[in-house]
Structures are given as C-alpha cells and as structure tokens.
Amino acid sequence: MIELRTPAEIEKMRVAGVFVGEVLTELASRVAVGMNLLKLDQIAHDMIRARGAESCYIDYHPSFGASPFGKVLCTSVNDAVLHGLPHDYRLRDGDMISLDFAASVDGWVSDSAVTVIVGTPRPADARLIDTTTRALDAGIAAAQPGGRLGDISAAIAAVALADGYTINTDFGGHGVGRTMHGDPHVPNNGRPGRGIHLDAGLVIAIEPWFLETTDKLVTDRDGWTLRSADGSRGAHMEHTVAVTADGPLVLSARA
User: Fold this and answer.
1) Quick one: average pLDDT of 115-136?
2) What is the H or E stretch that residue 24 is in?
3) Cβ distance 200 to 248 under 8 Å?
4) Does the predicted model carry a pTM greater than 0.90?
5) Burial of 221 (0-12, 13-18, 19+ CB in 10 A)
C-alpha cells in the first residue's frame, strides 16, 4: 500500500534524513587505506546509539537474505555493489566502496547511499561514479508532482544508457516511511508517462546503481553481498526524496 505523508510528517522524516546524511558524511571522511569495514560499521553503530536512533539493517531478514543482516551498514567494495555485509577487510589503495545506511529516528526512516574511491582513483571508477551521481540527480529532478513514476525511472536510465552502461531492474528504489522498504518499487529503467501518479506526500528512496560491464548479479557466499557476475566494479547512489507541491525535496542531503 502506498501512503502519502503530510507536510508535518515530511518534516519529521527530514530529521531522520539529516541524521543519515551526517552518518554517511562521517563515514565517507573516514574511508582511507587501511580502514577496516568492521570499524566503519562500528562507527555507524556508535552514532546510532549516541543519537538514540534505531538501525533498519541489524535485524533485517527479507526472503533474499540468508539470515538477519546483523550489521548496521552495508559496505560494498569493488565488484560488490549492493547489500555488502561488513567483514574483516582493510581497504586498499584504489578500492571503490559503496556505503549504504538507513536508520529510524522517532519512528521515521531515511535511507541513503554514496560511493567513494579509496586513495588513487582509476579513471573508469571515477566515470562510473560520475554517471551514477548524475543519474540520481536526474531521477530526483523528475520527481515532480503530477508526473508519473516512469518519469523517474526513464530519467535515470537515460543517463546510464547514454554513457554505455546496462541496467538491472531487479533492485532499485522504494517507498520509505515508518519502515525502510515499502511501495512503490522504483526501477532504474522505465517509460516516461507510465506508472503511478507522483502525488504530493509520496516519499521514496531513489537509488541508481550500475556495474561497469554487465547488469548481472551473483550472491556472495555470505548470503547477502551482491557482486557483478563478471567481476567488474559497481557504484551506488541513493537519497530519500519527498514529492511536494513545490517539487522534489531531498530529505537525506549531505553537507
């Protein structure tokens, strides 16, 4: 069921979005050669505890997960692009890491992700991140009241396809509210003018993610981490966005 939020509720969701943005900003600043993925998860856990927030991940156990996630942060490195389960790994020069974080503050959820390069960037990685960032911006710009969900999906896809990337629609954006995942599903490819109406009060996570040379995924032995089928690298960007009468409002904006 799709629920529309009042302006007052959206303001409450913005509080959660500010916190999620603060956590990702801190984590991105701590990404460096030698940083352990488990330490990044601990930093996020400490910030949740200090804020009195709740993790959306630690007990999360959907049908595609092998077990409850058990961590508060997704850390997807190099050929991993989604649902990366933090483990004992120290980042190396040239790695690319996607940080995906969702939390509930006073009962309202925000969800966001960012991809950063560790140390020396590879041109192909920088290009992939740039494309994914511009696709997110295009999707947000298309989240206009009176439009259709397909407008968002088509705007994301246009950026990716123009840069030569293919698109997987198995995983994409989603509704956000009292829980992390709700209706509607927001695929990263679609047709403009199709799908549900974008009414004021709709709150969704818009999250383009692309792989360098494939759109096929395989699941890691940990039962969670999704990797490219051909070993190529991936990038993932995400914001929680409210459709308002004045246009899209990014609730999880980072400083």
Assistant:
1) 98
2) helix 7-30
3) no
4) yes
5) exposed
